[in-house]
Structures are given as C-alpha cells and as structure tokens.
Design the sequence.
C-alpha cells in the first residue's frame, strides 16, 4: 500500500529536485542531550539520516537552554549551502520560533518546528520556507492520563496533583485536562495541587508533605510530567506505598515505562521523541527531492497540526521499552505518509 | 578583631542565634495555629528529611561565606558527584559494583572541584564569584556528558534503602545532616581553621599582616564546601535512585539564602554553622507550612519572598549597628 502511494506521490510531484540528494544537510536543533527525551530526539534524527543515506550530512545543534544561541547557531551554519539545509527544531522557548523562521525565509533554508509557537504566527501566513509546525496537544495529554487515573481509582477518592512550571503552556493545558476530567467525576476530590517545576527532586518533599497532611486520604497521584511522577513515586516508596497508589505522568521517558511495567505507575503519554526528531527531516527531504509539492501548495492543516499522542499503559508498555529500529518508522517517513500522525489542525 | 561569641551555644544573650531562632518559632506557631496537623510528629519527620540536604550544603557554604567569599559551584558539584556515585555502584549503565567504596570515591570529584576553586581564588587571584561560577559550568557539563541521555539508575538496594529509610523514627539523611552539623560546629569552634576563618572574613589584610597562612585556610574552606556539596549530591541520588544532572536544581541560591537569613554576613566575619542550620530550618518550615495551610502555588513564591525578608530583618536586626556598612 505504502509503495503504491509513494509511486503516486512521485508521479504527482510538481517540480524537479531542488537539490542534489548528496547536497542535502539535516539539522536537529534542540536544548541538550543529557535527558532521555532530547537524547531520543537526536537518536530519531540519526535513524532517519542513516536510513536516507545522509548520515554524513547530519548536524546536531545544542543550545544548552539559551534561546539566542539557538538562533545564532542556525545563522552560523547557514553561511553555506542554505537552500539545501533542513532544520528540525525543538524550540528552547516559544518566542525563539519567530527569529528562526525569519532566518529561514531570508536565507532559503527549510524549517520544521515542534511543540508550541507564539500567537498569531502560522506557517501558511507568508512563510514559504516554514515547512510545517508539528504541535502537541497538551490538553489531550492531560485528559488521557486523567481518565486512566480516574478509572484506576474506581471513580472516587482524593488525589493530589503535581504541576509543572506554572508559566508554561504545557503545564497549564495538562492541568486543564485534569480539571476537565474531574468535572465529570464528582466522586474524585482534588485535595491539593502544587508546582514542582517539572523537577524530580522538587517533587519528592512535596509528596512527603502531602502524605503528612492527608495521609490515607490520598488515593492517587497525578503529575504533569514523568520526572515529577517518579519523584513522587520515591516518596511513596519511602512510605511503603509504591505500587499501592496509582501514579500517572506525561512524556513517556524510559524509567516511567519501566515503572509502568513494574506496576508502580499506571500511565504516561508520549509525543514520541524518535518521531519528532525525524519527521521534520523527512518532510524536508521529500520537499527537496521533489517528491512532494512545495509547502506553500499544501493545505493549511498539513502545515500546522496536532501530533497523535501515544498513551502508554501496562497493556502496551512492553513495546515501548528500549530503542526502536528504523523499520518501525520507515512507513511514516515515506513521502506519501508524512501526515500519518496528523490529528487535524492545531490551535 | 572583636570575637563574635565565645564557646558554647547556651549564651542566652546571644542575639545572633536568638533572632533566627525566634523567627523559626514564630513561623512554627503560626502554621500550627492555622493548621493543627502541621504540628504532628509525622510532619516534623518530613521537615527534618526535607532539611537534610540543604543543611549539609549550608554547613559547607558557611565557612566560605565566613571568609568573605562565595561558592556558586554547588549545583555543578552535586550533579558531578550524583553521576559519579550512580556510575560506580551497581547501576544500569556501567557494569561496576563498588558498593560503599563507590560512595566514598564519589565524594572525590566534589573535594577536587572545591580544592580547584580554592587554588583559582588564592593562586590565580580569580574572584571567588567568577571562579566558582566557572566551576559550576564545568562540573555540570561533565555530568551531562556522563549522563548522555541515559541517566544511570542506581540498583544497589542497600544504598537505596539507606536513602529512603529511617533509623529511630528519623530519616537516615537527617541523621547524616546532624553529624555534618556537629562536624561543622567542632570545626568552627575548636579548630584553628574555624577561628582563622572568622579572622579572614573580618579583615583579610590584617589576618595576612599578622602572619596567618590565609591562602591555606581559604583553600580548605572551598574544599570543605565542595566535599559537602558532593555528599549532598550523593545522598540526593540515593534518595531518588539515579544519577541526575538536575539533582541540585535551585539549591545554590537556597543555600546562600539559608546562610544569610541565619545571620551569617555575606561580607564575612560574622555568623556560623548553627545560624545557618536555623536558616535552613526556616526555609524548610516555610516551604512545608505553605503547603499545609494551602497557600495557592501561584502566590507561594511571593509569600516566601516576603517572609524571608521579614525573617532576615528579625534575624539580623542587631547587626544594623552604628558603624556597620551594609553592602
């Protein structure tokens, strides 16, 4: 099926290749690679580069949390061969996307961005080089884990919620997802919610304090990311409660998946870092080799869309353990299937 | 040089201890009145546990600050030692299993970075602010390199049990912190190092002129600070179960805050480890109490700031003396 589609795609291609394949340069731009999520973005990018035969043309740019550096690294690289360069960007912060897109428009480089961007900015509003924005629907993520949590509790009892940094978009939306689910389940009482800054070590004492305050009233723990969920889990372990109280998080980091297999966590949601680290590069290669039309001819919902999220529970956790093979992603890198995880227009 | 206080904690006239002590008591009373569950045995255990790592850091920082310097490398050192311990004992990555020897070896990077800080400050005359800021980045960078996207998980069950466990109803980490505090107290009051640290902070030039080997004691202070930050990183890892580059996130500023609201002056020459311990407890009680009385998370930072300001006013009121220049 995929082969047929790709043949059709090739036939309907509108232009001759924009670049010699050997000239194409693949860039992953991200924060750092010390944490599993970012390391997996990089691994995904490398898997794709190897599969596409462009391993020698893969560049990794790390900004160490410095937005200015993310932009200047991009500008530095584009002093040569801009028109055959594809940037796949995990933005260090929302506002960094605008200068990066401007840089691409000016230089003729191609850019695909992830997560969230500033309001009123869209790839289809006069940004010919901004191939697509692959957004993550944090509200959906919050709803998905909350539903599993509520089911695990049998629909009644007290919960505590660990929030991320309150000034960030995912933190607000994931929590909004919890509130939305709680509205339908009056038997569940939100005992308390605190911010633990996305941080594992910060979540530990907060959970301990809750255990001292609420004791056995706490029937479940909701966390806006896996790191905090795992910090809370250790506090539960110290109190002899690990595995006895449902815990959910978001991100799908390897330890959380292990904890789900062990029965100490109930669910997490993953945006699939391997996919995010590779799909932008795949889109760019398809454009540059002329296998898909230029992005400005794409419909809007193909240039700015929500990514399908993977809900990981005990039932399917086994298949998410360890590094995946390229073969798992090859069908989705195919130029005819670039939007297989598109769940519709974002924002 | 005017002696700050002579032997003993029981000098009742010693406002330096009573100021922060009073602030702590007022906080505890306030929280208990607002929410009776605050004053439960279980919650005091939680507060003790939460104070353990900050207290260890504060004891180390105190000596550096007493000498009029600053150590900003805390978070980097914690990360480096966290990754080291997780790689040396039974873990998911390296195949090593050195047991408790690994725990001891993991303190060495902390000691080494502290020592290096001291040499940078004394031999190369780099201001401590810059030297330790650089060391922070270097140590954190090395830790990230080791972590490499696959943080090593600690699988040594005896270390995990120690990190999460309790002995006689008190968490093991809190007991270690008490030992460190006792060590710091002895160091400060019964050794030359402690007395000369005060002298150096009170007036480095005079100390030099009177023939004290100032440089040696400065190096020692940074080494102690590095060693204890390393210990904090190792214990933190034992508790959460992995080598984590963010193990010290936010700890450096919190430690300096604790030291200062305890009454140790940033310009050096005043204060001590007991004051820093009180400062640490004030911060721990504050963070714990705000959750207990239900201050909304959005407001907590603001409330924390306001209370820290008032606590430090109470704690250091007497120091606002006639001729003292505030910097």
Sequence:
């Amino acid at each position: 099926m995929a082969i047929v589609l790709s043949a059709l795609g090739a036939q309907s291609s509108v232009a001759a290749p924009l670049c010699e394949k050997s000239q194409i340069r693949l860039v992953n731009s991200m924060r750092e690679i010390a944490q599993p999520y970012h390391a997996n973005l990089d691994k995904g990018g490398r898997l794709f580069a190897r599969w596409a035969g462009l391993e020698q043309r893969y560049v990794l740019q790390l900004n160490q949390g410095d937005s200015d550096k993310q932009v200047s690294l991009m500008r530095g690289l584009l002093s040569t061969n801009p028109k055959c360069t594809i940037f796949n960007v995990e933005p260090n912060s929302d506002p960094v996307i605008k200068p990066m897109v401007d840089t691409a428009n000016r230089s003729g480089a191609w850019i695909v961005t992830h997560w969230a961007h500033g309001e009123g900015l869209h790839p289809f509003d006069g940004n010919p080089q901004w191939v697509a924005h692959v957004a993550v629907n944090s509200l959906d993520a919050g709803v998905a884990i909350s539903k599993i949590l509520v089911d695990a509790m049998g629909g009644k009892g007290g919960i505590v919620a660990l929030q991320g940094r309150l000034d960030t978009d995912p933190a607000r939306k994931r929590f909004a997802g919890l509130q939305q689910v709680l509205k339908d389940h009056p038997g569940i009482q939100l005992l308390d919610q605190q911010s633990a800054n996305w941080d594992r070590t910060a979540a530990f004492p907060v959970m301990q304090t809750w255990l001292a305050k609420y004791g056995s009233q706490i029937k479940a723990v909701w966390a806006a990311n896996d790191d905090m969920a795992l910090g809370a889990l250790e506090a539960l372990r110290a109190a002899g409660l690990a595995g006895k109280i449902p815990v959910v998080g978001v991100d799908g980091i390897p330890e959380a998946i292990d904890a789900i297999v062990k029965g100490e966590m109930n669910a997490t949601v993953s945006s699939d870092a391997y996919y995010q680290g590779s799909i932008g590069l795949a889109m760019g290669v398809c454009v540059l080799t002329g296998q898909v039309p230029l992005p400005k001819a794409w419909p809007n919902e193909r240039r700015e869309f929500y990514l399908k999220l993977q809900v990981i529970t005990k039932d399917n956790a086994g298949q998410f353990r360890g590094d995946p093979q390229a073969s798992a992603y090859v069908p989705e890198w195919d130029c005819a299937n670039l939007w297989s995880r598109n769940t519709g227009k974002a924002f | 040089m005017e002696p700050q206080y002579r032997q003993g904690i029981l000098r009742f006239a010693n406002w330096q201890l009573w100021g922060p002590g009073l602030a702590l008591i007022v906080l505890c009373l306030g929280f208990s009145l607002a929410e009776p569950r605050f004053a439960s045995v279980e919650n005091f255990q939680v507060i003790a546990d939460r104070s353990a790592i900050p207290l260890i850091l504060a004891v180390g920082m105190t000596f550096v600050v007493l000498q009029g310097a600053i150590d900003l490398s805390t978070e980097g050192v914690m990360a480096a030692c966290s990754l080291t311990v997780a790689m040396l004992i039974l873990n998911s990555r390296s195949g090593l299993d050195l047991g408790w020897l690994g725990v001891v070896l993991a303190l060495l990077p902390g000691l080494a970075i502290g020592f290096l800080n001291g040499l940078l400050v004394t031999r190369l005359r780099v201001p401590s602010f810059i030297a330790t800021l650089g060391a922070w980045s270097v140590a954190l960078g090395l830790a990230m390199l080791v972590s490499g996207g696959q943080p090593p998980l600690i699988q040594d069950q005896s270390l995990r049990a120690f990190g999460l466990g309790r002995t006689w109803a008190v968490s093991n980490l809190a007991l270690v912190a008490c030992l460190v505090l006792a060590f710091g107290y002895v160091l400060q009051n019964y050794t030359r190092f402690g007395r000369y640290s005060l002298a150096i902070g009170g007036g480095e030039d005079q100390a030099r002129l009177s023939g004290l080997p100032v440089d040696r004691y400065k190096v020692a202070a940074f080494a102690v600070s590095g060693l204890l930050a390393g210990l904090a990183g190792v214990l933190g890892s034992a508790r959460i179960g992995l080598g984590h580059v963010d193990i010290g996130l936010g700890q450096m500023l919190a430690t300096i805050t604790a030291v200062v609201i305890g009454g140790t002056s940033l310009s050096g020459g005043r204060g001590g480890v007991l004051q820093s311990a009180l400062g640490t407890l004030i911060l721990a009680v504050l963070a714990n109490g705000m959750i207990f009385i239900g201050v909304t998370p959005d407001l907590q930072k603001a409330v924390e700031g306001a209370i820290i300001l008032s606590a430090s006013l109470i704690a250091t009121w007497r120091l606002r003396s006639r001729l003292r220049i505030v910097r």
User: Anything to note?
Assistant: Residues 15-319 of chain B form a domain with the ABC transporter involved in vitamin B12 uptake, BtuC fold (CATH 1.10.3470). Chain B has a mean pLDDT of 87. Chain B touches chain A through 41 residues (CB under 8 Å).
